[in-house]
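User: I'm putting together notes for a lab meeting next week and I want to include a structural view of one of the chains we've been expressing. I don't have a solved structure, so I'd like a prediction I can at least talk through. The sequence is below, exactly as it appears in our construct file.
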Amino acid sequence: MNVQINYSEISDFMEQRIGLRPIFSFVDNKAFEVSYKHNMFMPTIVVKFRIDSMRKDCICLSYECSNAASMIVTGVVAYLKDKIPSGIEVNNVDKRVNIYPLHFEHVNRVYEYVTLSDITFAEKSVNVGLSLE
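Assistant: Thanks for the context. Below is the predicted structure for the 133-residue chain, given as structure tokens.
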């Protein structure tokens, strides 16, 4: 079973949850780019994420950005610390993000019926592969 989530839906969700509206764009089937421009006096922050590995209990991402963007990302993560769910772990030193799907209650309910089998990226969406349990 495949679920397709448009980048615009993710942007809408993030704007509602944390008040920031990033722009997502396709890089390749295992990588995407996120950009955000706070105001006209700040440069656009661009971060490229890549899925390095994936298991049922953990999605491991790495990210690339400029040194200036890395400092901004570190500041943003520190600022949003209380808004980042406990199932998301950000390591600014190694530029890694680990997502633990089973830490999210709504994902646990879904995992009763399906398991995550793959995540790929397309021009306008994230494609999530699910296997029936």
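A couple of points you could mention at the meeting. The chain is about 25% helix and 45% strand. The longest strand covers residues 45-54.

User: Perfect, that's what I needed.
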